[in-house]
Write a structure and sequence with these properties.
Helices cover about 15% and strands about 45% of the residues. The protein has 1 helix and 7 strands, in the order ββββββαβ. The strands form 2 sheets. Strands 4-3-2-1-7 form a 5-stranded mixed beta sheet, covered by helices on one side.
Amino acid sequence: MQITELRIRKVTGEGKLRAYVTITFDNCFVVHNVKIIEGKDGLFIAMPSKKTATGEYKDVAHPISPEFRSELQNRILDDYNNGKVIEASSSGTDSSAE
């Protein structure tokens, strides 16, 4: 499975949230609302999640292997750090997910 497109949208005014990411795989499958978050040890990605009835958050989609998770995070953060982003929005949502 190849990452064929990344769309990174910076956000402002959202605390530790730095950007929303949309990932396209093999030009045929898309995952919206991956987040880039500023943690105490640096940037990391958080997969899209949904709040359960118990208040717990569960990932909607996520890598199965640690190797692919690392590859995905490295690719996203490399693009983010190299300025391959759509400039800041204060809306806090990824409108392309609608």
